[in-house]
């Protein structure tokens, strides 16, 4: 079990909490909380050790596209980078109330 932490300078605050996904084999859950800071913090708890560079690359790509300000918690159970990005995008749809 590995815990990772990331921080990104951002400019677009979110206004509600979001929860997407489940902690299950090959999947993950993402919890987003509003913050008053001009940055996002991401805490990742993963059962797959040694992938901190991959996590950093996926999260950097996400924040380059969506510079939201939020405190984010990700509980991972072996999700691939594609699934991680899909869940992050799903969270953005929830923020926009898209179905």
Fold and architecture overview:
29% of the residues lie in helices and 40% in strands. By secondary structure, the protein is an alpha/beta fold. Strands 1, 2, 3, 4, 5 and 6 form a 6-stranded mixed β-sheet that branches. Helix 1 packs parallel to helix 2. The chain is globular, with a radius of gyration of 12 Å. The mean pLDDT is 95.
Helices and strands in order, then pairings?
Elements: E1 2-9, E2 12-13, E3 18-21, E4 27-34, E5 39-46, H1 52-65, E6 68-77, H2 81-95
Parallel strand pairs: 2-6, 5-6
Antiparallel strand pairs: 1-5, 3-4, 4-6
Distance between the termini: 34 Å
Q: Class by helix and strand content?
A: alpha/beta
Task: State the order of secondary-structure elements, H for helix, E for strand.
Answer: EEEEEHEH
Gross morphology: globular
**Number of extended strands:** 6
Beta fraction: 35-45%
Task: Indicate the radius of gyration in whole angstroms.
Answer: 12 Å
Mean pLDDT across residues: 95
Specify the number of helices.
Answer: 2
Helix content: 25-40%
- Give a quick account of the main beta sheet: strands, pairing sense, barrel closure: 6 strands, mixed
Low-confidence stretches: none
